[in-house]
Design goal:
Layout: H1 4-26, H2 31-35, H3 45-68, H4 79-85, H5 93-112, E1 122-125, E2 129-132, H6 133-162
Antiparallel strand pairs: 1-2
Length: 182
Amino acid sequence: MVDPAMLLASARTELARLPRILDGLLGDLDAATWRGRPAPAEWSPVEIVCHLRDEEAEDFGARVRVVVEGGDRFAAIDPERWAVERRYRDADPSTALTTFGERRAASLAFLAGVAPEVLRHAVTHPRLGTLSGLDLLAAWVTHDRLHLAQLAATLARLGARRWTPLRAEYAGPIPYRESPVQ
């Protein structure tokens, strides 16, 4: 059985790390790298940051609030559609990164006031079944880590491509297949 207080404390610590990591990883990227896609169907760094920014307020943060407030229904979301409709690739990277940081700070402030036991409350998700606040916190931290891995892989491919014809693959397998379409 998961201890709600321990999970909440650990999640808050983990969630607080991402803005600092993103600033260090992305803070001085050039415009081409911000918008470069490692493969046609993959997101560029700015698209990933915009996704994190919007998920912060409209997915994880909002859904944990539903649980904490004793709600019984989550609002529908469509992150893939948001990327197109909200024109993530055209967004200002610095603004997206700053807004994500602000939203994450607000989420952390909210979580600081949450009583751990209320996270046991669960809401039925139409596709995934019952999700408690504990499930959502664990997923939120995992979501951060998945997108951090995605960003690292994206930057590896874009960096290897930048130095063509040099043989960057000597470093090891480069994520994403090379494609002439950008």
